[in-house]
Amino acid sequence: MEKMEVPHVEHNLRSPTSPCVDLKPLENLHLCDREGTQSADSGVGELDDLPVPHQISISNITCDSFKISWDSDARGKERITHYFIDLNKKENKKENKFKHKDVPTKLVAKAVPLPMTVRGHWFLSPRTDYTVAVQTATKQADGDYAVSEWSQVIEFCTADYSSVHLNQLLQKAEVIAGRMLPLTVLYRNQEEEYFNQARDSQCHRMLPAVKDNSGSHGSPISGKLEGVFFSCNTEFNTGKPPQDSPYGPYRFQVQAEVLFNQNTNLYFGDFYCMYTAYHYVILVLAPEGSKGDLFCKGRLPALDRSNNRFLTCVEGEDGTLSFQHAQDVTLELVYTEPVDLSLGTVAAISGHQLRSSSTVNAKKDPSCKICNISVGR
């Protein structure tokens, strides 16, 4: 497959969504799995009486690809040699923008049978809104293009990571997990008001809430999975939970076997960092047959609860359970059911609140080579 054709900077393609855009060369782009494209060393000529694409259809959307097709009049069809595709991120002032991801992209492909696959992790991010429009074009003897009018502008959103991509993340996380350390309790830190509300208006229960958008941009659990977050990491020298916390000065603590046992399924949810040397792994604890368990099946990699690199639950000959956690990653556990406060204890911690360590809506470092995969954040 040849490289995708990208018009040079000195020749501006007039966009249907903006008056004029300076084009930047993008490398390693792939367009269409039927026929390659060639390098564009020429400019764009005048509008021509070529058929204008209409009834644009987007299908087979993944986190880094989509198929596009359209209808057009038969008149002048035989003169079409290329398609111009205007692909832009939909404007969102609050989105996490960075580097070349924001460059409006004009893709030029040889005319091939439709539908055509557009693929490229350098300009397509997971879970991102895009606009797309199409022109037909004919390459002339002098190297310039004659083009049709632009089609209507279509909006679509790319998909979450697939199981293939999540397994790539899982393998990367396993590499740095480190040795296993024993643990006995799971814990959740919050402000005092949180626990007061659980007692007074939630029947003494901590209720599941939708996971925020921290971590990998394409993780299927962000903004969708409901659960109660817990921690399990221990201090190396004491074997106990740390006294410091970024989430609040009060801690609910429960014996690990209450929430993690032979009736609990374990899933890998995400692996990320936040521009620091610390890496986070999100695991989902879902009681067998629960709503959360049904959500995770088929979406997330399932882990063997007694044999994995992050969090294990092993039953001894006498029926007792023992637990271990990975030393070199910070584990965030999502328990998918309500948790009754009577199952554990709530008490103030003696340490500090490390607000800078909070992961609430934290964005993943897209440049980290340890925790990123080929399809982006």
Report on this model:
With 377 residues, this protein is mostly beta strands. The chain has two domains: 30-157, Sandwich (Immunoglobulin-like); 163-357, no CATH class. Helices cover 9% and strands 33% of the residues. The protein contains four helices and 24 strands. It has helices at residues 163-176, 192-201, 256-259, 291-296; strands at residues 30-31, 44-47, 54-59, 65-71, 82-89, 105-110, 116-119, 129-139, 145-147, 154-157, 180-183, 185-190, 205-206, 209-210, 226-231, 250-255, 264-273, 279-287, 302-303, 311-315, 321-326, 330-335, 339-340, 345-348. Strands 2, 5, 6, 8, 9 and 10 form a six-stranded mixed sheet that branches. It has a six-stranded mixed sheet with strand order 14-15-22-18-17-19. Strand 20 and strand 21 (321-326) form a beta hairpin. It is elongated and about 80 Å long. The two termini are 26 Å apart.
Comma- or semicolon-separated keywords:
mainly beta, 4 helices, Immunoglobulin-like, disordered N terminus, 377 residues
Spell out the blueprint of helices and strands:
Blueprint: E1 30-31, E2 44-47, E3 54-59, E4 65-71, E5 82-89, E6 105-110, E7 116-119, E8 129-139, E9 145-147, E10 154-157, H1 163-176, E11 180-183, E12 185-190, H2 192-201, E13 205-206, E14 209-210, E15 226-231, E16 250-255, H3 256-259, E17 264-273, E18 279-287, H4 291-296, E19 302-303, E20 311-315, E21 321-326, E22 330-335, E23 339-340, E24 345-348
Parallel strand pairs: 2-9, 18-22
Antiparallel strand pairs: 1-7, 3-4, 4-7, 5-6, 5-8, 8-9, 8-10, 11-21, 12-16, 13-23, 14-15, 15-22, 16-24, 17-18, 17-19, 20-21
